[in-house]
Structure formats: C-alpha cells, structure tokens
Amino acid sequence: MLTMTNEKKEFNLEVLRRSPFFASFSEKQLILISEIATNIYVQADTIIFRQGENSAAMYLILHGKVKIVWEDEDGEKIHSTVLKEHQVFGENAVLSTGLCRDQATAVTDSELLVIDRESIMEIVRKLNPEEVVEFFSAWSEQIHAVNRSEFERILAQRILASQMEVEKQRALTEMVASLAHEINTPLGVINTAVNIMARELASPKEVTLQRAADIAESLELMQRNVERAHKLVQDFKKISVSQLIDEKELFDISEAVEENVNLMLVSLKRSQIGVNYVNRLSFEHKNWMGYRGVLSQILINLLTNAERHAYPNGTGGYVDVTIELADDKHYRLTVQDYGRGIPAENQPHIFEPFFTTARSNGGTGLGLAIVHNLVTKVLKGEIFLRAGLIKGTSFQVVFPRVLPE
Asked: 168-400: which CATH number, 3.40.190.10, 3.30.565.10, 3.30.1780.10, 1.10.3810.10?
C-alpha cells in the first residue's frame, strides 16, 4: 500500500544533502527539487514498481529498506540488492521512456521521497539555459556513477559465485583423492583375507579347529572391511550428490554432520588432525527440512580452514564439532580448534572475499566467504567468531530449524 503526504521543504532539502546521489547538485537545484518532491509511505512487501512497467519516477529512501531485483526475459532472477536510507533507485526512469528493467519491493515499512518526470520538467522551466545544462550534467554524472558502482558490484558477485563453484569442485576432487587412498586400506585387508582363505582351501585337508578359526577370522575381516568401504562410498555418494542438487529434503541433520566429519577425517588424518564429534540433539529435533549440500559445504570449509590455518604444515591437533539447539527455533553448529588462533587485526576481515594470510600456501581467501554467503543467504542464519579464547578459534553457525520459503 502506498500513501501520499505533503511533507517536504526544509526537511527534504536536508535529506537531499545527505544523499550521495545529490552530492554534486548546486544549492539552487536542491531547493527546486525539494520544493517539487513528494513523500510516500509504503508498507513492508509492497511492490513499488514491477519489471516491464512504465515508471517515470525516481525514489530516495528516507527510512526503511527496499529490495531491487533484476530479471531476464524468462523471469529468471539475475541479481538482487537491498538499498537503505539515503540511497536512490529508479533514477534511469526519469530520463528514459523505456520500460523498467527491475522490480522494487519494500522490505520494511518505508518512507520514500518521489521525484517524477513531470516535476523535473517543472524545474527545467525555472532555470536559464546554462543552469539547465548544469542540472542535467549533474544528473547524468550521478546516474553514470550509480550504474558503474552497480556494475562493479554485480561483476564482483559473479566472480565470487564462479570462484565458489570452483572451490566446491576442488573440495570434492580433494575428497575423491583422499577417499581413493582410504579405500585402499580395507581393500588391502580384504585381499589378504582372501589369500588366506584361498591357501587354506587350496587342497583338501582335515578341517581342524585351528583351520576353521583361521577361515572364520578371514571371513570376519572381509565382512568388516567390506562394510567400511561400503560406508565410505555411501557417505561420499550422499555428499557429492547433495553438492550437485541444491534441493530441500528431510534428513537427520546429526547423521549428516557425522557423515561429513567421517569423510573429512580421511584427509585430516594426513595432517594428524583428529575430530571429536558431539551430537546434543534429542531424537525429536534431528529431522530437518533443509539443504544437505549447503550444510556439507559449510562444514567442509570450516574443517578445511582449521587444517590450513589452525594446524598448518602437519602440526596436528584436535577439532571439536558440535550440533545442538541454540533455542527452540534454531540449530547451532560449532567448529572449534585449539590451534594458532586469528590475530585481532585480521578478525574483522575474515569473511571478506579473497582475504587470506595463506596465499603462498594455496589459500584463496574464499573458504570463510563461501561459508558466510551460504549461512546468511541460503540458510538465513548467522555465523559468529568467538573472540577472547585462550587458545584456538571457534565458529558458531546459527540457523533456523524451519527455513523460510
């Protein structure tokens, strides 16, 4: 719902001064804009304009938040962003007769300052030719700056998205290599047991208690190691398929965490790292309608981060992984190591894309950025770095038990 009001003049002029878009406008131009602009109030979830509509107005956010979504011709979302106070949107529509390329929706109850095309023409009629040139020069300069900034931001997000996909595939590749190495152990044991049985059964002999015991032991070894290899393959199959198909499914979240821990242990053992898994969920809280692949990516990246940064160069150590309820409506996944810790000066930057202190050792600076993106964007949760620990680092991921649609 949109509600009009006549509040303006000096209040609006001050708001214009605080907006980066109007930074290069003269005092006279700002006064003229403030005199013709109107205020509107919109309730949360109100669509201000849709893609394909003929909008001839721009909006300055006085209070609240507005989400802008760009879609392609097939209705596929290309990009979205949330704008806050003092930011503008729809600025291209004022000087263009084309249809809107995006959709604007109020995220919260919001107050907007509206400047439409007719109002701009009214301003132009009050200016002399030289002032008209200055006015449109300032307007086009700001539109160019906004478009350039938006393009750079979209480009950065696209680069990050592609790098995230590369990191996902790299994690799976490393897991495959570690899995192949790990499966060699049970296969070797099975091969030894088969040779023992073949030798014992190669020629007819009297079946003594000792021979029977040897054959029984060989069969037991074979069974145990076949089950071990089968579980490794099945766990990997679940994780790898979930990485490729990001669909909601109902599954035991505590079991999924354990599967990921067990598979990661295959590669972590080479760095002499052990993992202590603690499941504090009761039976009625285990089932989660969520994204198995996203949960897997988060856990893999946090454990890989501990391997690279907490215990570098194979120094070895322990990591605690805990799944529990944060409260009645949220899960909490904690990954805590007891290694080198994170220097205080680096802590504000750890979730920034491409920030790393281990680039020389193959670090890309994307591990924690990927985790932050998945937690906040997909799971609609939060991730916290616990500061002030005597030793090591603790990450806590808190996310809803019921994901919003």
From this structure: 3.30.565.10
